[in-house]
Amino acid sequence: MPEKTLHLTAFMRPVSLHTGAWRYPGAYPDANFNLTHLKSFIKKLEDAKFDAFFMADHLAVLNMPVEALKRSHTVTSFEPFTLLSALSVVTEKIGLAATASTTYDEPYHIARRFASLDHLSSGRAAWNIVTTGNPESAKNFGLDAHVEHADRYKRAREFYDVVTGLWDSFADDAFIRDQETGIYFDPEKLHVLDHKGDDLKVRGPLNIARPVQGWPVIVQAGQSEPGKQLAAETAEAVFCSPRDLESAKALYADIKGRAVAAGRDRNHLKILPAAFIVVGDSVEEARAKRLKLDSLVHYDSAIASLSIALGTDASGFDPDGPLPTDIPETNASKTGRAGVLKLAEDEKLTVRQLAQRYGGYSGLAFVGTPESIAEEMSVWLDEEGADGFTVVFPFLPQGLDDVVQRLVPELQRRGIFRQDYEGTTLREHLGLPRPNNRFFS
Amino acid sequence: MPEKTLHLTAFMRPVSLHTGAWRYPGAYPDANFNLTHLKSFIKKLEDAKFDAFFMADHLAVLNMPVEALKRSHTVTSFEPFTLLSALSVVTEKIGLAATASTTYDEPYHIARRFASLDHLSSGRAAWNIVTTGNPESAKNFGLDAHVEHADRYKRAREFYDVVTGLWDSFADDAFIRDQETGIYFDPEKLHVLDHKGDDLKVRGPLNIARPVQGWPVIVQAGQSEPGKQLAAETAEAVFCSPRDLESAKALYADIKGRAVAAGRDRNHLKILPAAFIVVGDSVEEARAKRLKLDSLVHYDSAIASLSIALGTDASGFDPDGPLPTDIPETNASKTGRAGVLKLAEDEKLTVRQLAQRYGGYSGLAFVGTPESIAEEMSVWLDEEGADGFTVVFPFLPQGLDDVVQRLVPELQRRGIFRQDYEGTTLREHLGLPRPNNRFFS
User: Domain named Luciferase-like: which ranges (chains A, B) (predicted)?
Assistant: First the structure.
């Protein structure tokens, strides 16, 4: 094996981020919300030795115009802890990453649920810490307006301290269960946190044994300044969305540098950009699949996305013509606009196709053959753009099958992805140390 | 079958309420916190056609002197939603009742988790509404003192309205998922709750389809005045703890009467007292098992329980002698005191045995042969003391095996318990109607 190998997690809520995914020929239209399908997906991902199954989360029905909303396959979904607990029973090794909000939940609940999931799964839980950026959520939790960004991140940092402190309530060897003497646990090995901070006051102890992994793996996705800083200080895996290798390398260096500055080992934080993967027999076939998928995005909602990306109203353009050359320049979105113009030129897309790309999924994509995609991933790994990827599937089941049956074997052949799990916990899959208990060493 | 039959639910958090349970010969000392054991228990309960597996909950390590705490098998437990979701995968019919607090949680979270569990389990979820009476919990949620009783019940009532309203966010037939037209759901069948009340402000809609059961079954356990009123207005099953048939009949008539006064059908609310069951080949053998179990309760914590029951300090009494006859009468606990005196006389118990009874489990108990217990249960059913029971096991696995292998067949032989499930949802097991959607009829 080469020195460096990839980590792969699967972005599974929704099971595809592409808004047209559920309409693709052969796709399960209810893939997000059908336990039988979800069980089969996670078993395939485990057979392919993926590090983890990753669930994003939203605490609201996302606010969008009704014309787009009624076409969205994300409007009904399982809640992460209930789904991952159910899926833990049908799997043995794959990690289970749940998103939980530090803004609209309580640290005692969060610490307890992740500890419970970690015990149920024998050490496979991960907590994706989010501060919940969607303003609609506030209205479901008694507030009129969203909590301010800086306040959310300040609370998140303290919340992390409280949750990890609660996980350390019991020493790893606190439970004796001596039937003869009647001693169930050693009270010297129970710590009362008694946290009193700016935003949180939590006494403890937690009413559950220390998690199998010590602490579930910490995941973070923020790309704002406070987000990157929180990730550098606390995260062990970072979910991010760079658009290309150059910006990925800059982000990678930035976050790893901050982690080192915070006194951490740079290898104990894995950078895992989201990558939309479409596999074909040829690059042309893969591209054709993608165009077919994009074509399933409704034009009315698609054109709105293109207008945003261009910084100008595109609804008057000829859908079946090329992008007009006389689009007025605006300051609002220079980078986005440049990206659209480059894409239009590179792939020779009509206005409709461009709109459907932006309305479907416009993030980082690897579209090609197993060989070409494996080569790209290898370059990202070598050049420190990524320690692995958070795979976004185009449609299911076929798009997932293509990855696990065709791309993964190619990655294994090149020696940059595991042939089998070496350990049993998610920390072991990711090469992360088990944290010491801060109260009992 | 006779006109009336019993409903049986299993009290499973902790798996035994008896403090000495984990020390009984042959008992699993970690029964509460071992997924393999819990899977086997729920499968046995389902084979015996129990209505539901019931999980109480605590949002704290219970406050008790360290001498008692270190002997408690309840100090580490799985969180209810994660455990029940895992257990839903290994079962098909048995109901899954989780306790969730209206005082220390948010209605959007609660509505969502129960809806998710109901979908994962194909219609088997129940919500045991509690207001969380344990003052230690407040300290884990940022408060110094517990929320006042009346305020807790006022919020609980409003909380119920919000949660059920959120469950009704989508019409049952809202999801079309038409791949051809691209319409995922009919927006006319989505309702925004927009609740603004005294204690809660929640916009909605919920981001999950209406539960399979319409609403998960509502369970309530309060026996205070506001508790009984809340149960009468909202509950479909009541978990209660009458000490004998006479008090059970009074409670049964009281709650059913309140339900009728609130405009409900008295058959749509099932009264299920907790019953501790010890089965033997003879009544004497069953009693001997119970004495053996009681003897495993540590005397120091046991004597404190007896002192509370007597309303006087019992620590100076001779542990191996009979209860002194000259105990000063107090006003503090006349009923409790009379119960102790009667028990001492009926079963000729020493001070130590009495103490261990009160320190172990002193609620309603059926201790005898399968025939004698079935007969007692039949009387309770006929005389309207109960619509069934919430079974408390003395120790596990044997005490559970005795119930499912010996008592249940006797109940079935008498025709007062089902031979098989007739439906698939918990509502169907309990004979409860599926609620209409208040916004879409």
Answer: 27-384
For residue B170, what are its two tokens? 């989508």
**Minimal CA separation from A178 to chain B, in Å:** 8
- If DSSP codes are grouped into helix, strand and coil, which group holds residue B62? coil
| Contacting residues of B for A187, CB less than 8 Å apart | 66, 69-70
Of B75, B105, B177, the CB nearest to A22: B177
Tokens coding B203: 């916009």
Q: Which of A154-163, A261-270, B47-56, B60-69 has the lowest mean pLDDT?
A: B60-69
Tell me, yes or no, if A172 comes closer than 8 A to chain B by beta carbon: no
Token readout for A30 is 């209810």
Cα nearest neighbour of A25 on chain B: B179
Establish if A82 touches chain B: CB-CB under 8 angstroms.
Answer: yes
- How far from each other are the two terminal CA atoms of chain B, in whole angstroms? 35
* DSSP one-letter string for A360-419: H--S-EEEE-HHHHHHHHHHHHHTTS-SEEEEE-SSTTHHHHHIIIIIHHHHHHTTSS-S
- Cβ <8 Å between A70 and B184: yes
User: What pLDDT, on a 0 to 100 scale, did the predictor assign at position A333?
Assistant: 62
Q: Half-sphere exposure of residue A426, counting CA atoms within 13 Å on the CB side?
A: 35
Report chain B residues whose CB lies below 8 A from the CB of A104.
106
pLDDT tens-place string over residues A141-156:
999 888 889 999 999 9
Q: With contacts defined as CB-CB under 8 Å, which chain A residues touch B204? A: 140
Q: Which tens digit of pLDDT belongs to each residue from A335-360?
A: 778 889 999 999 999 999 999 999 99
Whole-number Å distance between alpha carbons of B278 and B366:
6
Cα distance between residue A266 and residue A384, in whole Å: 12
CA A231, A232, A237, A242 dihedral sign is positive
The complex's ipTM works out to: 0.97
What single string gives the DSSP state of each residue in B239-254? EE--SSHHHHHHHHHH
Element containing residue B183 per DSSP (H, E): strand B183-185
Per the structure block, which two tokens stand in for A51? 């590090």
Q: How far off is chain B from A129, nearest CA to CA, in Å? A: 17
Q: Is the pLDDT of residue B2 over 90?
A: no
- Asked if pLDDT for residue B331 goes beyond 70, the answer is no
Query: What angle do the packed helices B283-294 and B351-360 form, to 10 degrees?
Result: 80
pLDDT digits (tens, 9 = 90+) for B177-232: 999 999 999 999 999 999 999 999 999 999 999 999 999 999 999 788 999 999 99
Q: What is the pLDDT of residues B258-303, one digit of tens each?
A: 999 999 999 999 999 999 999 999 999 999 999 999 999 999 889 9
Rounded to an integer, what distance in angstroms lies between the CA atom of residue A396 and that of residue A293?
A: 12
C-alpha separations of B226 from A90, A101, B230, B274 in Å:
43, 33, 6, 20
Neighboring chain B residues of A170 at a CB cutoff of 8 Å: 76
Euclidean distance between CA atoms A24 and A5, whole angstroms: 33
Model confidence over B28-45: pLDDT tens digits? 999 999 999 999 999 999
- Residues pairing with A391 in the sheet: A10, A275
Which of A105, A140, A187 lies at the smallest CB-CB distance from B66? Answer: A187
CA A17 to chain B, closest CA, distance in angstroms equals: 15
Place of tokens 């290994």: B90
The domains of chain A are located at 5-279+368-428, 282-358
Contact B165, B438 (CB under 8 A): yes
- Helix crossing, B245-261 with B370-382: angle to 10°? 40
Closest CB to A79: pick one of B23, B35, B113.
Answer: B113
Rounded to two decimals, the pTM is: 0.97
Domain A5-279+368-428 has CATH 3.30.300.20: no
Predicted local distance difference test score (pLDDT) of residue B333? 62
Question: What tokens does A97 get?
Answer: 């990453």
Q: How far apart are CA B156 and CA B229, in angstroms?
A: 12
The answer to whether B228 touches B437, Cβ cutoff 8 Å, is: no
